[in-house]
Amino acid sequence: MEEARRWIETDESAMEMLARTLAQRPFLLMPPLHRVPLRVGNVVEIVGPSSSAKSEILLQAAVNCILPKDWNGVHFGGLEQLVVYFDLDCRFDVLRLSHALRCRIMEASGFAKGEFQVGSLHFHETVDPSSYSSEELFLVCMRRFLYIRCYSSSEFLSTLKTMRHRIQKESEAQGVRVRFLMIDRRNFSLQCITESIVLEISRLLQMEPMLVLATKAAILRIELTRNELRGSSGKWAFEENFGSTREQEKYREFMPSAWQAFVTHRVLLRVSEEKLRDVDDKLLPIYMSQWVVPPLNYSDKFYVTDSKVYALKGGGLDPCLKLSVRPSPIILSPNAANVPLQRAATWQPADHEVLIFHFG
Amino acid sequence: MPPLKNLEQEFPIIDAEFRQFCSSHGIFSVEDFLVNDLYSLAAFAEGEAISDKLKQGIAQVLSIIDRQHQPWLNGLELLEDAQMKKRFLPTGCQWVDSLLQGGLREGHLVELAGPSSSGKTQLCLRAAAHIADRKLGTIMFLDTGNSFSPERVSSFLDPSTTSSSLPKEAQERRCRRVMSSILCRSVFDIFELQDVLNRLSITLGRKGKDEATRLRLLVIDSISSLITPILGGRDSHGRSLMVSAGYALKRLADESNLCVLVTNHMVGGEGGLPKPALGESWKSIPHVRLLLSREHGSHISTVSVLRHTSMAPGGAAKFAIDGGQPIAVSPD
């Protein structure tokens, strides 16, 4: 009888359930991670060849996470959470992080005052007294970034085994939780080590719900090396097949199956041969991304500036980029004359949400 | 990582009983502990008669494991380390320095790739001469192909090509000082290199830090000629030696705050196009990769950025490899 009553008793009210699910609502991340709703507990693998902006995406996501939502009446749109960054590559550049963070802070507070101009400010030199509060914000944000360098897999594993205590201490001290776990870049060969790494991470995820972002270098075929040396003149073999399923065959999966089964999302990155001309007349590389897990049939293009990752879509720029303050960038394509972006923006897609830029 | 029985002296809790319990679960060393699931191990310990003692033992091993990894840092501590301890080392070529936003960074592993006679060694020698001349510290040159040339270094200091007009004795003194702060050593295989790096990290870790004479730049010219002989074949042994050498260099660079400059020669790839001798797997190891090239018959070398931790690839600069004077060649 007692048992039957317990069986029909409710677990939680709708209110409680809503509060619980809302706490785990999908993150709104910057491109190219904006395409798929991600929540805590997901494991996202970012795959791409050397210098395809993998680490840059991790870094920008980290900036998003450590920034507050609002600060002194200025909207930053961050998550105000801790980030744990595992640097297995030992190539993390903290100056890059601090520069991106400063740019974001300056940009947001500048936009609020309405006096900010992209590209005309040198953030290093100008620290005027009015930026005192932004300096304080900078320090608070930097403290939310936890970093560890691992020179070997066993160091990584020993960190994972003992990090829970450290995370708890840190999140109690700062009053915020860890939301992102970033791993730059995983390359392990030993089966047993990978298995126990996966076990430790999944255990950690049960205790502390987090979003895991891991990068992985794709070992592509030989054309890449050659292409890199030739500059941008060559054409990648797989570019023509972009969008079909064939490009998946072109990169070799080398991670053990334990890790592959652990990954819930996978996105492929590559460098496109087009370049974007900046305000300062610098050429910025344009990157392309495609989701493999879950399979999506379109690809996004994006580019990276000092402060943000911007999507290039539908022949126009991301709405968050103010075209009025930034002279229109020009896309350089090897087989087309320079077409200013703003003109291209008048060409509207019929019923697609996203489109890839076409020239010539 | 030590076997458990070696730990008993230091930690009496890891006694024969505890080790017997561990070995019944296939654990004999700290490494086995790492790979095993400690939660299920603790659950097994619960069922034993001496469960408290076993759990204490597990906690003890965990705290030993905790000492195996690098320290946790937050963003501020990292930033402080980078700003206080990692400085820029000028190469002496104005445009290369401005391309690299100040020069070679301490803590970085920088690779120069390029075909034969594209100026790789020249850039290394010039950077060494310049750093020594500016009294920034000591330079170590690991020479794998007898490419180090003291005459060349002294020609960079030659008064006829530099603007300074020192008296002859002062010039000689300067030359002697520069030469004495460049240490050269021949290394002919990868195992010797590993040995040198090991000893270097021990001496650098021990020595009191004297800023004026500490090691600032480690040049390996060329690292590819050490590694390519062991690459190839079907097993990945050579590859893993390469990766571990790369990590050893990065670790040395970070912990001893020095810049490591290595060169990578080119070989014929598929279709006759040249490609770096250390290819796809090496690519992801250095912090900065620079590609050097030189037009046939010209003295001007072009440096372009293949990758950089804080810069988009694609920038380029030029320098002259002929004559001592760092000729100001504009970036295009």
TrEMBL record, chain A:
GO terms for biological process: double-strand break repair via homologous recombination. It comes from the Eukaryota. Transmembrane segments: none annotated. One of its GO terms (cellular component) is Rad51B-Rad51C-Rad51D-XRCC2 complex. This is Uncharacterized protein.
UniProtKB/TrEMBL annotation, chain B:
The keyword ATP-binding applies. GO terms for biological process: DNA strand invasion; double-strand break repair via homologous recombination; reciprocal meiotic recombination; telomere maintenance. It is found in: Nucleus. PROSITE patterns: RECA_2. Gene3D superfamilies: P-loop containing nucleotide triphosphate hydrolases. The keyword DNA-binding applies. Residues 85-266 form the RecA family profile domain. Keywords: ATP-binding, DNA damage, DNA recombination, DNA repair, DNA-binding, Nucleotide-binding, Nucleus. GO terms for molecular function: ATP binding; ATP-dependent DNA damage sensor activity; four-way junction DNA binding; single-stranded DNA binding. GO terms for cellular component: microtubule organizing center; Rad51B-Rad51C-Rad51D-XRCC2 complex; replication fork. SUPFAM superfamilies: P-loop containing nucleoside triphosphate hydrolases. Coiled coil: none annotated. Belongs to the RecA family. RAD51 subfamily. Involved in the homologous recombination repair (HRR) pathway of double-stranded DNA breaks arising during DNA replication or induced by DNA-damaging agents. This is RecA family profile 1 domain-containing protein.
